[in-house]
Amino acid sequence: MSFLGFLDGLGGPHVRDGVIHLVVVLASVHALAAVTAIHVPHIRYLAILPEIVMLGGAVLLLGVASLSDRPVRMSVTTVGTVVISGASMGLAWWQWADVRQHGPFTTVAGAVVTDGFSALIAILASTAMLLTALVGDGYLRREGVEGPEFHVLAMVSASGAMIMGQANDLIVIFLGLEIMSIALYVLAALNPRRATSGEAALKYFVLGSFSSAIFVYGIALTYGATGGTNLAHLTSYLSTHALSSNGVLLAGMGLLLVGFGFKVAAVPFHMWTPDVYQGAPSPVTGFMAAIAKAGGFAALLRVFVSSFGTLRPDWRPIVYVIAIVTLVVGAGLAVVQRDVKRMLAYSSINHAGFVLLGLQAADARGVSAALYYVFTYSFMVIGSFAVVTLLGRSGDVGHDIAGYRALARRQPVLALAFAVLLLAQAGVPFTTGFLAKLQVVAAVVDAHSAPLGFVAMGSAAIAAFFYLRVAVLMYTPRRPRWVPPGREIVFDPIVGPQASTAAREGSGVSGQAEPEIAPGGSLDGGTAEGAVATVPRTLAELRLWSGSERTVAVVERLNADLLIDREAEAVEDGAGGRRVRVPPAAIVAIGICIAVTVVFGIVPGPLVDFTHHSTLLLLR
Amino acid sequence: MLHAASLMLLFPLVGFVILAFFGRRIGDPLAGWLGTATITASFVVACVTLAGLAHRTSASRSFTQTLFSWIPVGQLHVNVGILVDPLSMTMAMFVTGVSMVIHLYSIGYMKGDRDYPKFFVYLNLFVFAMLLLVLANNLLVAFVGWEGVGLCSYWLIAFWYERDSAASAGKKAFIYNRVGDTGFLLAIFLIFSKVHTVDYLGIFAHRHALGGPATTAAVLLLLLAATGKSAQIPLFNWLADAMEGPTPVSALIHAATMVTAGVYLLSRMNPLLALSPDATWVIAGIGGATAFVAATIACAQQDIKKVIAFSTISQIGYMVLAVGTGAYVAAIFLMVAHAFYKGLLFLGAGSIIHGLDDEQDLKRMGALRRWLPWTYGTFLVGWLAIAGIPPLSGFWSKGDVLENVWAKSTALWAVGVVTAVLTAYYMTRLFVLAFHGDPRWQHAVGDHPAHRTPHEAPWVMRAPLVILAFFAFAGGILDLPWVHHEGLASWLAPVFGSRLFSAHESTGLKVGLISIDAVAGVLGLAIAGYLWRARADRRELEPAFLQRVWFWDDFYDLVIGRPGQALARFSATVVDSRIIDGAVNGIASLVRLAGANLRRLQTGYVRNYAIGVVAGVVAIVLFVLTKT
User: Fold this and answer.
1) Which terminus of chain A is more exposed, N or C, with fewer CB under 10 A?
2) Summary count for chain B: helices (H), strands (E)
């Protein structure tokens, strides 16, 4: 015991006791470790490099911004974000090529998977991030909230979506979900000048937490029934154990569906959507619509089609019903909206219903169609909200539909761009929107759920109305104020305005035009010039005032058809007729969105093949 | 030399493109000359190709040139290609030749028209389409040409579209043709579904795969197409209205070329016809009936162009009769001869109309021989030719047809001979009314003012008359009965082969039949001359039944027009505005209402939203628990 003696000599029994104690503890820990070895899983960092770049880039950007003395210039933040998300996208493409060549693989003890599916979601998320950075640049300058927070939070959120795409474990899915969502909650609140922004964030947060709790409960029940959370484990467990009528498992599955349904805004878990989409800053809304749907559907498709594949008979009816109400409620409520952002919110609910069709088909074709839908929808929705962002006034207000009247005359290119994006969302041929709808409907019909396909097409018909309404309005002149040559109104005390014959024929359909002409005719023979001087109060006065009755009748009819009240329009009238400045970054973003939407609509091959191959490379 | 054949198509196409884009700048009359030049070039190419073809041995006179692959879809591989063989080249020769002459004539006739360049745009496009139809090596490309000529015909009939009658005549022609075109399309579908090709040579090689009923159906559908394009019963009455177009159009499209396309199509498909004797009887019957009916109608028309139009229908009836008999060579012979003399008659009529300041009423003509000597001389040739007076081309060609028909069916032959008498009768009536008798145009009648003294046409219009008169006179040389072994028959023999009907008749019988033809012609001539020489006003010889085209239009109006309009009105006022619009508006209101009510759920309170989520959870959990 020379060692103990040496210790004794060094510091007495006190020290000696302490060291002995330490050795004993170390030894026992070591002994314990020898029994249950803490296994550190092998991590292939290349597999999660896109996330690392995105998240690391966000941290780096935040760090630089907080450490520098002066505020970082907006352009630096934007360029940095573009570079980071571009790098992430490049890595995702590289992953895709790698997976195509060598096949999919898992890492981190099977919790993370790299396959074609995950690569597609990563490409989608990083592209959405890139476009949003470009759109957000101009917005943040206009709103005076320059700073790195927007971009940093968005990047964090994008990395969350990417994690959801790669997750192969329910816990990792939840991790990704929360990373994505929490960043989105904050993003929704980003505009301090709008009370609705904060309100939206709070609603999103409260309800999001609520749904997360439900989701976690679903995970717990699933774990209880199967003894694991790993998707591969679930797959193999469910294929070897006949658990089809296990209440715990089914309840867990149902709760997971609710959690996902909340994220992708499926009815009846959609109610946050209109408020949040309307309240959140416009670029955030576009980003949110793209990213939350991408992440949510990625995990949803993977979990349900792949892992709960054997439970198809149990969940397909649920998805069937959810898809129907989502389609119908989304389309039906969008029709009655006056606020364009809110309208697009309901439209996104309708789109979610379409993607659910792909899930309901529950086969490779359906998954491929759903992926295609999510992918192409991202470009459409980011582009649409980019236009909406530009057209909003400072403070991100003025999104009433009446403000879009005659946009084509003020800004023809912007109007055309928006019209194309709206038509694409409506599913007009030669756009990706058409192919997307076609594929999901075809998939669901092939999967023997043809009625669902009919409902989807019916809802698309309803949806066409509100897209076209905006498109038509943009190309409708403000109000007829010109008097066509030879149509100057000549008054006759008996028959009223001479030029009214044509109008009577024209507006004969409505029927109530007739009596209203009488007061106009009895205006004591006032001249047309005299009438112009007063602002019209009634339809008849408007007729006299504007000169061309037929045109007025047509415009009135159109207003009625398009659900636009003249009163509401008059409120907006003062502010609507201005030209907005379109920053170059936004032009690039909208240009990319339109290019993708139209080019791949005309030449569908590459993109269809891309989503198809991504599905084939899904790891099972 | 044969590889240059595609140039035939190229020249009119180039002419069309140039005229379409720069026609206005090129202007009058250069545009007309340009149009004529392209067709002349086409004609030269046709001559060269013909020479090249004649150089080969008769068995190898078929040559396919593929220009490009058009539709490579699944089983359907359609190449745009041309088939050069004796039949197509015979057609191409007279199409380009007659077109060239009529283009030349149009330079003078259309002078001063507001849309002068446009006229040649259409005319060049027409020639292109006609050549495409004739030279195509498969049914689908032929159909493109078929539709192309129909479209040009529509444009040209309605060329003076400000006139209501012209516009509606164009529509009438188009609609009648569409009915026929449906037959063509269905025939293509049927043939493709059975033999999996639309290539002529492919179809003929596998024609036995069609089977009896399908062959008969295909032939009858092609006959329907032919009745539309070639104005046969029951789709014949558009042609008379088509006379609203400018006279060169009537001469080119509605006499010489387009209207014979149906006959060409049936001749081209002769291997199928040979497999279906029943269908050929139908063809022969329709041809004979049309020939007779149209001839009777021509006897009572007042409008000079309508007389010639019904004469055209009647003559094509002869051709269809010949095709139905299997006497394809006789049909083609008559087609070529008819192109010459009918083109001549139309151009002569155009010259009269031109000279009399757009007067078309025969009763307002008379004694024109003194003022229009060139027209008179050439018209005389055309008249005698169509009347079947030896030794003009009409005599030989009609004789050839009737000789073959005699062997097929005596009854049809009798109809043919009666028609020959009628033909001579109505043409003599026209000739006498126009060129002899009193100059009735000198007096004002009712609201018709007196005409100025007529003037002879310029040389660009006279030259075509002389050229066509020469061929109308001498065209019979092509296929005189005693030179059969090196005439048209032996030239076309490779196309028709053994399917060609040959009436093995004794020389005595042939001479007898020919004599009867000649007597029929002279008889009709004499009767008409006796009846109409002195008096122009013989109402008793122009019964309303014939003037109103056997009430054919009224019948269609009653059976198809009125019910169709009633149906359209019903659809517009009830189906569309109430049911369809009602449904649309109803659904729209429903959606709007539903939306307005559903949005009440969207209260804006988080607690209510959470209830929505909970409700969803409860519903799902309850559902899955029913499954346990």
Assistant:
1) N
2) 26, 2
The model's pLDDT over B516-575, given as tens digits with 9 standing for 90+, comes to: 999 999 999 999 988 888 787 888 888 888 888 888 888 988 998 899 999 999 988 888
d(CA A371, CA A356): 11
Residue range B100-117, pLDDT digits in tens:
999 999 998 888 888 899
Residue B282 pLDDT exceeds 60: yes
Residues with Cβ within 8 Å of residue B57, at least 6 apart in sequence: none
pLDDT at residue A499, as a whole number:
43
Instruction: List the beta bridge partners of residue A496.
Output: A492
Q: What is the pTM of this model?
A: 0.63
Q: Which residue's entry shows tokens 């139209």?
A: A598
Q: Does A254 touch chain B (CB under 8 A)?
A: yes
| pLDDT tens per residue across span B570-623 | 988 888 888 888 888 888 888 888 888 888 888 888 888 999 899 999 999 999
Domain coordinates of chain A in residue numbers? 3-35, 45-476+584-616, 489-577
Which chain B residue has the Cα nearest residue A263?
B613
Q: Which amino acid is at A394?
A: S
Number of Cβ pairs closer than 8 Å across A and B?
88
**Distance separating alpha carbons of residues A332 and B402, to the nearest angstrom:** 75
The two structure tokens encoding residue A253: 């599955």
Please report which helix (H) or strand (E) contains residue B120, including its range.
helix B116-135
Q: Which of B102, B99, B124, B3 is nearest to B43 (CA)?
A: B99
CB-based contact B192:B201 (threshold 8 Å): no
Which among A202, A245, A255 has CB closest to B617?
A: A255
State both tokens at A282. 């416009």
Per cent of chain A over pLDDT 90 is 52
What's the confidence (pLDDT) of residue A162? 95
Helices (H) and strands (E) in chain A, counts: 26, 4
Which value, in Å, is the radius of gyration of the alpha carbons in chain A?
30
Residue B83: beta bridge partners?
B64
Are B595 and A246 in contact (CB < 8 Å)? no
On the 0-12 / 13-18 / 19+ scale of CB atoms within 10 A, A100 is middle
SS3 A463: helix
The confidence band for B481, taking pLDDT boundaries of 50, 70 and 90, is low
The residues pairing with A230 across neighbouring beta strands, listed in sequence order, are A169
**Cα B169–B170–B173 angle (5° rounding)?**
85
The tokens for A316 are 């397909």
Nearest to B383, CA basis, from B426, B416, B415, B350: B426
A112: CB partners within 8 A, 6+ apart: A47, A48, A106, A166, A167, A168, A169, A172
At residue A378, the pLDDT reads 96
On whether the CB atoms of residues A349 and A597 are closer than 8 A, the answer is no
Q: Which of A271, A275, A339 to mutate to test the interface with B (most CBs of B within 10 A)?
A: A271
Between CA B471 and CA A17 the distance in angstroms is 137
Determine whether the interchain pair A318/B623 forms a contact, defined as Cβ–Cβ distance below 8 Å.
yes
For A400, residues 6+ apart whose C-beta sits below 8 A from its C-beta are A338, A339, A340, A568, A572
Question: Which amino acid, A79?
Answer: V
Task: Locate A548 and state its tokens.
Answer: 């061309």
Q: Kindly tell me if the per-residue pLDDT of A408 is higher than 50.
A: yes
Q: Which residues of B touch A (CB under 8 A)?
A: 588, 591-592, 594-596, 598-599, 601-602, 604, 606, 608-610, 612-613, 615-617, 620-621, 623-625, 627-628
Q: With an 8 Å Cβ cutoff, are A250 and B624 in contact? A: yes
Q: Positive or negative CA dihedral for A33, A36, A38, A41?
A: positive
The answer, yes or no, to whether residue B17 has pLDDT greater than 90, is: yes
- C-alpha A112/C-alpha A123 separation (Å) is 17
Contact call for B606 and A269, based on CB within 8 A = no
